[in-house]
Write a structure and sequence with these properties.
This protein has 377 residues and is of the alpha/beta class. It has helices at 32-39, 47-56, 68-84, 101-112, 128-135, 154-166, 203-206, 220-234, 240-248, 254-271, 284-294, 303-314, 322-329, 333-346, 361-367, and strands spanning 22-24, 91-94, 117-121, 143-147, 168-173, 180-185, 190-195, 211-214, 236-238, 280-282, 350-353, 356-359. It binds adenosine-5'-diphosphate and magnesium ion. Residues 38, 53, 56-58, 64-66, 97-103, 194, 226, 254-255, 258 line the site of adenosine-5'-diphosphate.
Length: 377
């Protein structure tokens, strides 16, 4: 029986529609689908930027710079699964946007030397069929990458439990008195999930991942190596001190480092005696000018970071709630929580209390205006 013979899943109208996900052949570069999946929560990523980001994405463990503990753990798991001829265990990757979760998810298929990678995005998974449709299409050894998994609905999530544990889904057919449940066997597969908010995952879901890895912001030395690699791919020669300065102002995040590098490359190209075909030489002056144009200051804070601090300053030291803060700076609450706040907290510029966010003394020293007026807009 094909899956189309099962008219209903619990609370669903049916499974007739095709799966929402896209499949990625193993030997293709990381997919558009993967980028679309993560685009929603990362501000300021244009279509061109996403395409360029794909071209900079590491495609093997060898290519992946930094996060050595995480990569070592995954390398061992991959080797062990390959040696046993088994599918890889389910993997949960957490960490701030832009640290490399999608890149890792997309390179695992190549490292296993088997399986296609199918991509789904948590926010689009509402009904059972949104996830069951893809699960039933998976071949043995395939990868299912679910980005932003904490944003899938509770209803869709329930189908993952037996799928992950027993490679099986229970479908309810018919409704009312005649309803009965049918077990549909799935091919053994690997679920790779990414989340920016590990704390929002339910316990039953989290416990079904055998491998849980957290990506941390990169030290500047790793970001400098990432920038060297990206510079090579983008046709830039980055001077050593320029590379160090850019790395230290990139919020510990490769996505920011690469984004800044692209803009700085434009600046460098426009100032010197660059000729078509030559590598673009990036020096410290180009970095300084480029970052100034981008509104990134010497501490790596951008305009939104400074706006956040100003809102906090203007409240006279009282805590400001997330909703008010988001409305005041014109960003989504989620973006504040996932992108801006972690960096400001890490830099010791704000802290969270039960009533909201407060600026720290360090923030006041660096950015506060002695007159008490907001100093940046
Ligand atoms: N370890 C790394 N080495 C080289 N480039 C990286 C690394 N991690 C991330 N990047 C770059 O940063 C971009 C964003 O990474 P991505 O995997 O999309 O992050 P996430 O999914 O965690 O938001 C990638 O396209 C890639 O260019
Ligand atoms: Mg991603």
């Amino acid at each position: 029986m094909s899956r189309k013979d099962y008219p209903a899943t619990p609370g669903d109208e049916g499974l007739q529609e095709e799966a929402a996900g896209e499949s990625v052949e193993r030997d293709q570069p990381a997919s558009t689908a993967a980028d679309d999946a993560s685009a929603s929560y990362t501000p300021g990523r244009s279509i061109e930027e996403q395409a360029e980001e794909r071209s900079l994405r590491p495609t093997s463990f060898q290519d992946f710079i930094g996060q050595s503990q995480v990569i070592d753990n995954l390398r061992i798991a991959v080797q062990a699964a390959r040696d046993r001829g088994e599918v890889l265990d389910h993997i949960l990757l957490s960490g701030m946007p832009g640290l490399g979760k999608t890149s890792i998810a997309m390179l695992l298929g190549g490292e296993m030397g088997a399986g296609n990678t199918h991509v789904l995005s948590g926010p689009t998974l509402e009904r059972g069929k949104d996830v069951v449709g893809t699960l039933t299409q998976l071949a043995r050894g395939d990868f299912l990458f679910i980005d932003e998994i904490h944003r899938m609905s509770a209803h869709a999530e329930e189908f993952l439990y037996s799928a992950m544990e027993d490679f099986r889904v229970d479908l309810i057919i018919e409704s009312g008195a005649d309803s009965r449940s049918i077990k549909v066997d799935l091919k053994p597969f690997t679920l790779v999930a990414a989340t920016t908010r590990e704390g929002l995952l339910t316990a039953p879901l989290r416990s079904r991942f055998q491998i849980v890895e957290k990506l941390e912001p990169y030290p500047s030395s790793d970001l400098a190596r990432i920038l060297e690699r990206s510079g090579g791919l983008l046709g830039c020669e980055i001077e050593q001190d320029a590379c160090g300065q850019l790395a230290s102002r990139s919020r510990g995040t490769p996505r920011f480092a690469n984004r800044f590098l692209r803009r700085i490359r434009d600046v460098a190209q426009s100032r010197g005696d660059w000729k078509s075909g030559d590598p673009v030489k990036v020096d410290a002056a180009a970095v300084a000018e480029g970052l100034e144009r981008l509104g990134v200051d010497e501490n790596g804070l951008d305009r939104v970071d400074r706006k956040i601090l100003n809102v906090l300053f203007s409240n006279g030291g009282e805590a400001v709630g997330l909703k008010t803060l988001a409305a005041s700076v014109g960003e989504e609450q989620r973006t504040i929580e996932e992108v801006y706040e972690p960096h400001l907290i890490r830099e010791g510029l704000i802290h969270r209390t039960a009533r909201g966010r407060c600026a720290t003394r360090k923030a006041a020293e660096l950015y506060g205006d002695p007159s008490g007026q907001p100093s940046f807009v």
